[in-house]
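so my prof wants the structure for this chain in the tokens format not the other one, which i didnt know existed until like an hour ago. anyway here's the sequence
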Amino acid sequence: MTEKQNPQRIFPHSLIIVSLLACFGLLVSVILTPQTQPTKTLGEIPALCNARNQGPFNGKVLYDCVFGEIVKTDLSIMDRSKRADFIAKWQHKYDQSEMLGTEENTYRAIKKMVRDLGEMHTAFLTPKEARDLYLSTQGNVFGIGAPLTRLGLRSAEKALGENPSAEARRSLNKISADTPLVVYPAPDRDSPAYQAGLRAGDRIAAVNGTSTIGQTMAAVVDSIKGDAGTTVVLSVHRPSGSGYEDKDISITRGAVHVPQVVTQALPGDFLKVTITSFTQTVAQEFTDALYLACTGKQLPYDVRALLPILQSYKPERDCAIKGLVLDLRNNGGGVMEQATAIAQLIMENGPTITIQQREGDRSIETRERIEHDGYVKEVVENGKVIQSKKTTRFFRIVPTVPIVVLVNGMSASASEILGGMLQADGLATVVGTSSYGKEVGQSFKPIDFGSAVKITTFRFLPGGVALGAGVIPDFEVLPGDDFIDDPFHAQDTQLARAVEVLSRGEAAVKEAHSASALADRAARSTQAVEKHRLREREFFAASSQ
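here's what i got, hopefully its the right format
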């Protein structure tokens, strides 16, 4: 999910990034587009639509606020006739009813209105949902900081057969003895979980005495989360010899910053960098991790010590890595600007992203690119540049080396921006399975009573090229069933292929661009389009129940 703060998009403000800005001038994070005056056709956002309005609760105010925000900004109803139909149907839908008399009924009414857009990424968020989403973009959670997964899922899924019933699919979502919940990968060493003794491979048998069997993973995760300072007791089965050791581990919850960048040295002086999410701090984490991997040294946090490094660092001379695997699998996205910031740390020059957005009844494009020492943003309307801004770019850390990007069906949004632009610019070969296929981004707008709306307001083109069905790998490699069932003991076949591609260098790139490879990629793109259509039908069918 690519989010955008209103009126400014979220942008990194951590210490390293701030230091870079202080040295080289402020990088503008606002899309520079002319302001337009609201018209009756567009509707009006009510004056009471205000995030500072915390009560007493008024369902009519909240409903009108969401309606006004959608009518004014949602990309899916830019067409005047479609927008007029939406206004006629929903503006006064509940004015004369009791539907908006309670919070629960108001939320239900608003979600029904939003669902009618037929845009699966625009959403109304209750206060809890809004808080959870905001915290996720900060890289912070309240809990214990333990990553969890389930073992045996592929075998259980295959056992259901080709066309399982809805009841069978619901049953698969529940933890069983054959699909236990396990800590994977390892918790960060600074997390409350690790400090209390939780380790990778521990199977979560119970939370505060309640068995995990028969519960969904989401329900268990919710029971583990909690306010900082409170305690949760996890009963675990820890692998020990040929059996398991039972342990009760008491963990004091805290405000946890979950590291989003993990590096792993690979044979041949190659480096694997896993980005788990595009939070506010991921560009800083990437900067720190890559500089350390390249030079064996930590970047200083003092601006006076940092400046000489920025002035003297030469990637081709100073970086020891010979190839890069950028692992974006299962990365659902996050803050869009973090993807373009990381691109500047990798790319020497070239287009990074084109953003198509709605300004009232107008269609505006913002085209962004790297020009060696500068970062350029051009605002275009009807093919004509109406504004242009060039600022100093972030310094490039990664030398010109072979790059492989790993993606799968859970790689979405900002992941597709970064992976797509590197592929479009010819800088990376992609391995894995087709990405999620989410070419639109959302603005996050806090509104009354702690709620928020997440509205689709722009479409992105990675590297200036339409995403289409998603990031389609140059080399399709399915994950092995044994790895999905048990990542502790099975080979990661996708990573193994990535290393092979790096080792082959230009020969692998040539193969990826052969006529047969391009034809195969086009066919997989068509298959992905059909898969996405089915996904949307299932989404709206499920949400209408």
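also thought this was worth mentioning. Confidence is low (pLDDT under 50) at residues 1-43.
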